[in-house]
Design a protein that fits this description.
The chain is 33% helix and 27% strand. By secondary structure, the protein is an alpha+beta fold. The chain folds into 2 domains: 261 residues, Distorted Sandwich (Beta-galactosidase, Chain A, domain 5); 384 residues, Glycosyltransferase, CATH 1.50.10. The protein has a 9-stranded antiparallel sheet with strand order 1-9-10-11-12-19-16-15-14. Strands 2, 3, 4, 5, 6, 13, 17 and 18 form an 8-stranded antiparallel sheet that branches. The two termini are 34 Å apart.
Length: 656
């Protein structure tokens, strides 16, 4: 596998190019995203999207697009493309696209007449700065190129409308200008590497740009963007021009070297594994000595549950246990009464996740297995782990508590506390109030993991306190969730009610290091999951035989929320399916695991280029849906490869 390449036929075909999106990120949290042909199809698209901590610490679209026009023999050739109502596209610059190559950068090549000009995008990894490189690869005579910035300056979940409050002015800076549409925003600096670029101020609004993906999702989909003026310069064959868009001024003479230095630290995309590594890096945000994991692009922020589930795969792929630990420690700093933040930060943190703390133990368990530092982990994290266990045993928020049978019960009216958390009109779609199968499987694994570390460190007091509970759980778990006549585990139990709906949560009970059910029950679970829930790109969240099954994830938000965990397939669950499958079926499972992994090679460039989608339709052809690149999707595909390799190594070791 070499560089990712899209040819002219694919790029000029809007039915193809608008369905695929590119993503560029910085470790500061800034990102750029748009379709292959630079026509924005989402309100989340833009060339510079980043947090504005002085406003709300949410992400804001600052620079929506930078429209280029080439003036050649007095005729204008517009390279940009925008969509307007009634399926109108204007201008239609995509028709000049002949090639897109993605490796260290994304490189678009445009051809018009005897001009061939390339355009490369990348982010400075430690600044809120996009750098664009234009190179004139061919032309007979010099030509003029113009740049019109289209500015949004609005929160990414909202849309901009023409108004009289906008600051129509600008400030001259070296080789460029700065713009600050509203007082509470940081200014945007647009600067060029050449010092002969002229700026002509002519403020105006572009009205009713339409984002087709938002229309499909049932949201408002039309926006007005502010265009302050036009930058202009002359280029000829061999010329290279750099443009930067950032929130701080830069010395223009440094731009070229900055671009070159960024290239040197980037990995060439020569394999599927390299694509996955690049995708993994995009989720990490480093600021103020903290590391956070973005759950997914382009609309998610930090999620506690997603962070813990994602960290093992992401950091194994990057071979970076330091990053793993930093992300764990960052979330520990926000722990409260044994709970981790589900979403949000600062004053807007929500602690409505019963499973995030249980996934913390799982993540730390993976970290410990990778590093083999049991005593060090126990010394450093005992207090945190003990706090969580005690809060769950004695009771904490949202009625999370251990019952007399040593199992965990959780639930609160109007709230969905597990990962199946969709809510419509104030009512959870899949509330699962009571004892949930995966929560209690993880609870047992967490206690056993702690006992393993405590015994290694001769912590007799902890062992004495928790051993009896650990010993009781397997029999209580089986009595609670298993029914021999049915043949699989209940999804949740509340009092005398047992819900045996076929869902994928029970597969987690088969995959953990410490399993509280027999191999035979694990086999029956995996067989049922394979029969009713398995797809090539994820496990369905509900059996197709169920009356509430949704085969396709589509429609407005309410319709999509009803489908989210009622049939939609989730990639992250495949990691646990593969892990359990390898345990039970051994060599016979290896072919299945490898087929799953190989299948994503054909998918990784069909939606978010270089990423793995958040979800997939439950029915064939299992179209990619949701966010264009999701942390736990990428992470678990990486971890599947790790599980395959580990199994082969252990098998060879057994032979010796």
């Amino acid at each position: 596998m070499g560089n990712i390449v899209f040819d002219k036929d694919e790029l000029v075909n809007l039915g193809y190019s608008l369905e695929r999106e590119i993503l560029k990120t910085s470790q500061t949290g800034a990102f750029a995203s748009t379709s292959l042909c630079f026509c924005n199809t989402r309100k989340y698209h833009g060339l510079l999207v980043l947090p504005q901590p002085k406003i709300d610490n949410e992400y804001h679209v600052i620079l929506s697009s930078l429209d280029e026009t080439i003036i050649y023999h007095d005729a204008p050739f517009h390279l940009a493309i925008h969509r307007y109502p009634n399926e109108v596209y204007s201008p239609k610059g995509h028709k000049y696209l002949t090639l897109l190559e993605i490796s260290k950068t994304s490189k678009h090549t445009y051809c018009l007449g005897d001009i061939r000009i390339s355009k490369e995008l990348l982010f400075n990894h430690n600044q809120d700065r996009l750098i664009i490189k234009y190179k004139v690869e061919k032309c007979d005579t010099p030509f003029i190129i113009q740049f019109n910035p289209l500015l949004a300056f609005r929160q990414r979940h909202k849309l901009s409308k023409a108004n009289n409050e906008v600051n129509r002015g600008f400030n001259k800076v070296k080789n460029g200008s700065s713009f600050q549409l509203y007082n509470n925003y940081q200014p945007l600096f647009v600067q060029f590497s050449k010092d002969d670029v002229e700026y002509m101020h002519s403020p105006d609004w572009y009205y009713n740009l339409e984002y087709i993906k938002e229309a499909e999702r049932g949201y408002d989909s039309q926006e007005d963007l502010f265009m302050p003026g036009c930058f202009e310069t002359q280029l000829e064959k061999g010329d290279v021009l750099f443009v930067t868009a950032g929130m701080e001024e830069i010395e223009p003479s440094l731009i070229k070297n900055l671009f070159s230095s960024e290239l040197r630290v980037r990995e060439e995309i020569t394999s599927f594994e390299a694509e996955l590594r690049r995708a993994a890096k995009m989720f990490f945000v480093k600021k103020d000595n903290k590391v956070e994991v973005i759950a997914g692009y382009p609309w998610f922020g930090r999620w506690g549950r997603d962070t813990f589930i994602s960290l093992p795969g992401l950091c194994v792929g990057l071979n970076d246990m330091k990053l793993f630990k930093q992300a764990l420690d960052t979330l520990i700093g926000d722990m409260n009464q044994g709970l981790f933040p589900n979403i949000g930060s600062g004053e807007s943190i929500a602690y409505n996740s019963v499973d995030a703390p249980m996934w913390f133990f799982w993540a730390l368990q993976q970290y410990t297995d990778y590093t083999r530092k049991k005593k060090q982990v126990w010394k450093e994290y005992k207090e945190v782990m003990n706090s969580i266990l005690c809060n769950y045993r004695d009771g904490t928020n949202h009625n999370i508590r251990m019952l007399d049978n040593c199992l965990i019960w959780a639930g609160e009216d109007g709230k969905a506390l597990t990962w199946m958390d969709a809510v419509v009109d104030g009512m959870p779609v899949t509330q699962r109030k009571g004892m949930c199968v995966e929560i209690n499987a993880l609870w047992y694994n967490a206690i056993m993991f702690c006992l393993e570390l405590a015994k290694e460190s001769n912590d007799k007091a902890f062992v004495d306190e928790w051993s009896e509970i650990a010993e009781r759980i397997p029999s209580e778990f089986k009595a609670c969730f298993w029914d021999k006549s049915i043949g699989w585990l209940a999804d949740y139990v509340d009092g005398y009610y047992k819900d045996f709906t076929v869902r994928p949560n029970m597969v987690i009970a088969t995959s953990l290091k410490y399993v509280c059910i027999s191999p035979k029950i694990c086999q029956l679970i995996l067989d049922r999951v394979e029969k009713e829930l398995f797809t090539p790109y994820g496990l369905r969240t509900l059996s197709p035989t169920h009356k509430d099954y949704h085969d396709v994830y589509s429609g407005n938000q309410e319709e999509r929320d009803f489908a989210y965990h009622q049939g939609t397939a989730w990639t992250w669950l495949l990691g646990h399916f593969v892990e359990g499958y390898l345990k039970i079926y051994g060599d016979c499972a290896l072919e299945v695991a490898e087929r799953i992994y190989e299948g994503f090679k054909n998918n990784i460039n069909d939606y978010g280029v270089g990423g793995i989608a958040e979800i997939f339709d439950g029915n064939p052809p299992h179209n990619s849906k949701g966010s264009i690149s999701q942390a736990w999707s990428v992470a678990e595909v990486i971890r599947i490869k790790y599980l395959i390799d580990r199994y082969k190594i252990e098998k060879e070791g057994d032979k010796e």
